[in-house]
Amino acid sequence: MFVHAHPDDETIGTGATMAHYAAAGAHVTLVTCTLGEEGEIHVPALSGLAADQADQLGGYRIAELDAACRALGVTDHRFLGGAGRFRDSGMMGLPTNDHPRAFWGADLDEAAGLLLEIIREVRPQVLVTYDPNGFYGHPDHIQAHRVAMRAVEMAGDLAPRKVYWTAVPRSVLAAGMAQFAESSDNPFGGVSNADDLPFGSPESEIAACVDGQKHADAKLAAIEAHATQIPPTSWLFAIAGNFGSGALGVEHYRLAVGEKGSGSGEYGWEDDLFAGLDTASAGATPAAAASA
Ligand SMILES: CC(=O)N[C@H]1[C@@H](O[C@@H]2[C@H](O)[C@H](O)[C@@H](O)[C@H](O)[C@H]2O)O[C@H](CO)[C@@H](O)[C@@H]1O
Ligand SMILES: [Zn+2]
């Protein structure tokens, strides 16, 4: 089970992982907490959908998300509390944070209770969400972390056996910076030291590295599906262009709950989020022995 804040996060942060496990026959459930109503619009013809105009971007991003899930092979997708229950809060500190339906202002136990209903139905063995900072500090990402961790706490014996947080190793960021230093598509802007970025983890804090390079093209198709959010000039396309689409297919995770399974390589990272779990005796998921 993947708990994400907006349509597009599932693809950007965990798209290759989701495609990898969907292709392997695991039951993959995506829970998206908002419709992304406050997002930018990088498709000029759709600019009228903006929140301060027709305010229809949220509905449009449902369709983008459907297309992205199809590209990734993910068939079980839910909006937390149903489509439109919680609204995109906008970036930290904006007046949109105070919208009556803003996810940032949601009652924690109420929102976690809604996620608990899905956990009780799907019985995921593994849950993936963000770290306490929401990976980069967006209020909806921070709230998604809080709601997911509270739901895991409330789930008791039905809680997933392992909970991971999305992460990027500092070494990967540093390598990217070096490559982009002279590029006009430099996604790191003026930042020259990976330690100065609002995200990035020491290799010692990373527990798993999922190699989903076989699904990099699916992730690229899913990125393209989120056209209102991810323009052709995006750093994501720059990475695919500079390092090959395969670079998009490797995704890293920190382990927040559960026992780390066996790993390998320089840092002993797991290559499978189900490492150490008995997936043959999975819970109630009808679709496959394993569920994420
Ligand atoms: C990846 C992600 O979480 N995207 C969010 C984010 O989008 C940012 C926002 O539009 C900001 O104004 C831009 O400068 C930045 O480049 C975007 O990544 O926040 C949006 C509003 O809450 C949200 O809809 C979008 O999904
Ligand atoms: Zn987001």
Give a structural overview.
With 292 residues, the protein is of the alpha/beta class. It has a single domain (2-289), classed as LmbE-like (Rossmann fold, 3-Layer(aba) Sandwich). It contains seven helices and seven strands. The strands form two sheets. A four-stranded mixed sheet has the order 4-5-7-6. Strand 2 (29-32), helix 2 and strand 3 (76-79) form a beta-alpha-beta unit. Helix 1 runs parallel beside helix 2. The radius of gyration is 18 Å and the shape is globular. 46% of the residues are buried. Mean pLDDT is 93; it is low at 282-289. The structure holds the ligand CC(=O)N[C@H]1[C@@H](O[C@@H]2[C@H](O)[C@H](O)[C@@H](O)[C@H](O)[C@H]2O)O[C@H](CO)[C@@H](O)[C@@H]1O and zinc ion. Ligand LKMZNTP5 is lined by residues 6, 8-9, 12, 36, 38-40, 88, 90-91, 138, 229.
Q: Key features?
A:
292 residues, binds zinc ion, 7 strands, binds ligand LKMZNTP5, zinc ion binding, 7 helices, alpha/beta, 3-stranded parallel sheet, globular, EC 3.5.1.103, Rossmann fold, 4-stranded mixed sheet
What is the mean predicted local confidence, pLDDT?
A: 93
Largest sheet: 4 strands, mixed
Distance between the termini: 4 Å
Domains, number: 1
Number of helices: 7
Query: What is the string of SSEs from the N terminus onward?
Result: EHEHEHEHEHEHHE
Structural class: alpha/beta
Q: What form results from the Cα inertia axes?
A: globular
Q: What is the number of E strands?
A: 7
Name the CATH architecture. Answer: 3-Layer(aba) Sandwich
> Would you tell me which CATH topology applies?
Rossmann fold
Strand order of the largest sheet: 4-5-7-6
Q: How much helical structure, as a percent, in the residues?
A: 25-40%
Q: CATH superfamily, called what?
A: LmbE-like
CATH C-level class is Alpha Beta
Strand content: 5-15%
Low-confidence spans: pLDDT under 50, at least 5 residues? Answer: 282-289
Tell me the radius of gyration: 18 Å
Give a list of the ligands: the ligand CC(=O)N[C@H]1[C@@H](O[C@@H]2[C@H](O)[C@H](O)[C@@H](O)[C@H](O)[C@H]2O)O[C@H](CO)[C@@H](O)[C@@H]1O, zinc ion
Keywords: Hydrolase, Metal-binding, Zinc
Family: Belongs to the MshB deacetylase family.
GO molecular function: N-acetylglucosaminylinositol deacetylase activity; zinc ion binding
Protein name: 1D-myo-inositol 2-acetamido-2-deoxy-alpha-D-glucopyranoside deacetylase
